[in-house]
């Protein structure tokens, strides 16, 4: 039958059933249950951002408010079950419900819950992520000091988990570890940037490379060049995705064994490149959303065999208690899409040896096979805990890879050019054998002059703190052309008024400030950790960086007359706050509610303590800080830091809409607004509504010029805001929040160039 104009996809695939029945990956007697689970829609799952101080508040809000309202609810004849926490995820921070994503989006009864999920996801407080996808980062055992590489990172939900783990201690603004998130697809890199930006971390860098040949990076250690080896690597490779049939129903129609056969070589090359870049003692997690041993155990067995003891599979059976898993298998066969089976490489005819490779077969030597401990791999089956299908293997590196025994010693000066001494993956007949290429004497003589000139350019750029796109012609750029990353010189006069205005602590790492422009006025100031600064400065000629750093200051043309041309940016306030010693105003919870629901409220509306604090303070950007009172347990019990602006007679918060809604929810203010009825929208087309929503987000960063127009605006908004925000209806609060930025635009006599032309990274988000 036809539903909505499209034919219903039949959830049947004879070849799929024949293949997996023969391999025996499903325990005896569970086949029907396994197939029935695959035909059911995947339940919606969500994860609360763990490192945020208000994670407990969100969890409390979810359990006491939203989950309670789902009780005894029926949607399309289906009873809504109370959401359950995932038993194996720490601290009750991950939940699942029997509701599919489609029902969540479409059902009017669930509109309130859906709005909450969308808004909190935009803020970075919640990630809507498939349950099995949460497993690999947990098994990496990340600590805040770890250097982490995520090899195939897009769309970024696992990357977000890794960033959270780096920031386990919220009191440390700059963990010494970092995440380098890579993806081969230029467009998907911007999806990755969007995911990472929600978490506002100075310790994440997004790069764009082929994971199977991602370059060796160098870092400066006490004046010496050293190769960067990673403590943790996440290798979530491209796969056939037959474990995702519950959400990607196209797989039912398109599945053949050919997909796995074609991907095996690439998966092995990526995994090989990963272990090459892993530090000794480091941990790499290899994962796929496929159930096929050709993409899973065959890749791991081949990697272990050619590592000659340098790698071992970690026993993680005691980790994530509560997670039901199947052990890895040691025997499997290879099948072509025509249904023909092969048990050994020697059985494969010559005309099939391009499709089937020796590394796809199990190891025949029983002793070798036993030493590999393939049963330590994990396979997650959909019917065991109502999830998708998944495979995970955890590898530990005990010594350098055999082909990397002659690694450069740490005291040697490494060449600047990527081609002089580099590890390359060569796709040979039995998989992916890697060698170290060293230039011959003749090649060195030929390239010596060119190399010296290139080194001079590179050294000059580093002195100027400029990290631009790679100059080497070998590294052809594609997709968007990125702006350079320019670090502020130590003696830059731009920084002196900022330091004075905000009374920055002497320990403030000003060397980590960067901009995205070499010439003209600097519009935005970003910040990275000192470890990422080291990576950026030493690798700009070989690495295509898409994005890094968080925005900490934005230029405000009118601010100069108050002593500082830059106002604080909300994205970076939690990173900056520990270093700021001036212009901090402590506010009570009632003040926070006024700030978040009213545009430019008069100072007279605030508590007397707040009025006293700002009375003698100069106009301009300020920090608004709320500290919870332990003696008032019913009030919000997590600290809040907001960016604000003090005018002549008013005070306002510069906070994006979804973040405003988040804080109000945590304070118990009802912010849900039901969709307006069709008759209310007669005068507005859908395009106009969308345009306004888009405009609301875009104008959030518009500079404030309210010191000239405050009386006019206050006259306009005074009456509207006279009602207490707590007593206002949810509809009124939502409307006010949506209008905050619109009225901000009216209050400005100009839109700065920054507002019109946001930097490239923001546009591409």
Secondary structure elements and pairings:
Layout: E1 2-3, E2 6-7, H1 14-23, H2 31-39, E3 43-48, H3 55-70, E4 74-75, E5 78-79, E6 84-85, E7 94-100, H4 101-106, H5 111-123, E8 126-127, H6 135-139, E9 147-150, H7 157-166, E10 178-182, H8 186-197, E11 204-207, E12 218-221, E13 224-227, E14 230-236, H9 250-254, H10 257-276, E15 278-288, H11 297-307, E16 311-313, E17 326-327, E18 334-335, E19 341-342, H12 366-372, E20 378-380, H13 382-385, E21 390-397, E22 422-428, E23 431-437, H14 441-463, E24 466-467, E25 485-487, H15 495-502, E26 513-515, E27 524-527, H16 530-539, E28 545-548, E29 550-555, E30 566-568, H17 573-576, E31 584-586, H18 589-597, H19 608-615, E32 620-626, E33 640-646, E34 651-653, H20 657-666, H21 686-698, H22 706-717, H23 730-747, H24 753-756, H25 760-764
Parallel strand pairs: 9-10, 9-14, 10-11, 14-15, 31-32
Antiparallel strand pairs: 1-2, 3-7, 3-8, 4-5, 6-7, 11-28, 12-13, 15-21, 16-21, 17-20, 18-19, 20-21, 22-23, 24-25, 25-26, 26-27, 27-29, 29-30, 32-33, 33-34
Notes on the structure:
The chain has 765 residues and is an alpha+beta fold. The protein is 33% helix and 19% strand. The chain has 25 helices and 34 strands. Strands 9, 10, 11, 14, 15, 16, 17, 20, 21 and 28 form a ten-stranded mixed beta sheet that branches. The longest helix is centred in the middle third of the chain and has 23 residues, at 441-463.
């Amino acid at each position: 039958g036809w539903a909505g104009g499209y034919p219903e996809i039949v959830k049947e695939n004879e070849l799929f059933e024949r293949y997996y029945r023969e391999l025996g990956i499903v325990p005896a007697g569970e086949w029907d249950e396994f197939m029935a689970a695959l035909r059911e829609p995947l339940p919606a799952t969500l994860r609360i951002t763990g490192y945020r101080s208000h994670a407990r508040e969100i969890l409390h809000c979810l359990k006491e408010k939203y989950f309670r309202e789902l009780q005894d609810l029926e949607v399309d004849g289906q009873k809504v079950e109370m959401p359950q926490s995932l038993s194996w995820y720490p601290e009750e921070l991950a939940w699942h419900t029997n509701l599919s994503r489609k029902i969540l989006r479409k059902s009017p009864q669930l509109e309130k819950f859906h709005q909450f999920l969308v808004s909190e996801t935009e803020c970075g407080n919640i990630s809507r992520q498939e349950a099995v996808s949460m497993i690999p980062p947990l098994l990496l055992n990340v600590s805040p000091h770890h250097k982490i590489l995520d090899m195939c990172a897009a769309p970024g939900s696992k990357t977000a988990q890794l960033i959270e783990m780096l920031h386990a201690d919220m009191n440390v603004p700059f963990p010494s570890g970092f995440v380098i998130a890579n993806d081969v697809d230029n467009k998907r890199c911007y999806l990755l940037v969007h995911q990472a930006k929600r978490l506002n971390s100075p310790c994440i860098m997004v790069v764009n490379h082929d994971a199977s040949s991602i370059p060796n990076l160098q870092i400066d250690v006490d004046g010496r060049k050293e190769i960067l080896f990673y403590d943790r690597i996440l290798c979530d490779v491209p796969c056939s995705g037959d474990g995702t049939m519950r959400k990607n129903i196209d797989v039912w129609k398109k599945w053949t064994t050919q997909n796995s056969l074609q991907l095996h070589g690439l998966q092995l090359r990526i995994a090989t490149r990963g272990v090459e870049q892993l530090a000794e003692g480091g941990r790499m997690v290899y994962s796929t959303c496929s159930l096929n041993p050709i993409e899973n155990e065959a890749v791991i067995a081949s990697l272990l065999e050619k590592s000659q003891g340098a790698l071992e599979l970690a026993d993680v059976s005691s980790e994530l208690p509560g997670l039901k898993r199947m052990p890895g298998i040691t025997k499997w066969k290879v099948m072509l899409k025509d249904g023909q089976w092969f048990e050994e490489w020697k059985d494969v005819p010559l005309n099939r040896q391009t499709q089937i490779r020796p590394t796809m077969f199990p190891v025949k030597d029983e002793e070798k096979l036993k030493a590999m401990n393939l049963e330590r791999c994990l396979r997650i089956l959909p019917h065991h805990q109502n999830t998708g299908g998944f495979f995970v293997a955890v590898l530990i590196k005990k010594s350098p890879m055999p082909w990397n025994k002659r690694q450069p010693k740490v005291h040697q000066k490494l060449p600047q050019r990527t081609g002089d001494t580099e590890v390359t993956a060569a796709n040979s007949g039995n998989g992916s054998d890697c060698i170290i290429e060293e230039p011959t004497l003749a090649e060195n003589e030929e390239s010596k002059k060119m190399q010296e000139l290139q080194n001079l350019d590179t050294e000059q750029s580093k002195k100027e703190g400029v990290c631009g796109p790679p100059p080497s012609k070998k590294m052809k750029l594609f997709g968007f052309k990125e702006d350079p990353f320019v670090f502020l010189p130590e003696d830059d006069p731009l920084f002196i008024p900022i330091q004075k205005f905000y009374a920055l602590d002497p320990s403030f790492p000003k060397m980590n400030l960067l901009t995205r422009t070499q010439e003209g006025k600097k519009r935005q100031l970003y910040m990275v950790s000192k470890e990422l600064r080291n990576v950026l400065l030493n690798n700009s000629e070989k690495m295509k960086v898409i994005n890094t750093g968080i925005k900490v200051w934005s230029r405000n043309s009118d601010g100069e007359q108050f002593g500082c041309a830059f106002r604080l940016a909300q994205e970076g306030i939690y990173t900056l706050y520990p270093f700021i010693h001036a212009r901090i105003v402590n506010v009570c919870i009632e003040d926070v509610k006024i700030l978040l629901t009213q545009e430019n409220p008069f100072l007279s509306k605030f508590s007397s303590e707040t009025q006293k604090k700002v009375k003698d303070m100069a106009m301009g950007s300020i920090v608004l800080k709320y500290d919870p009172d332990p003696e008032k347990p019913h009030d919000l019990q997590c600290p809040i830091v907001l960016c604000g602006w003090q005018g002549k007679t008013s005070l306002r918060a510069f906070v994006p809409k979804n973040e405003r809604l988040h804080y109000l929810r945590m304070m118990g203010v009802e912010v849900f607004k039901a969709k307006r009825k069709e008759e209310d929208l007669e005068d507005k087309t859908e395009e106009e509504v969308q345009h306004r929503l888009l405009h609301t987000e875009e104008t959030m960063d518009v500079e404030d010029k309210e010191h000239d127009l405050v009386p006019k605006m206050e006259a306009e908004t005074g009456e509207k805001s006279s009602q207490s925000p707590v007593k206002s209806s949810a509809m009124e609060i939502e409307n006010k929040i949506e209008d905050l930025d619109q009225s901000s635009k009216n209050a400005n006599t100009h839109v700065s160039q920054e507002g019109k032309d946001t930097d490239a990274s923001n546009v591409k988000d």
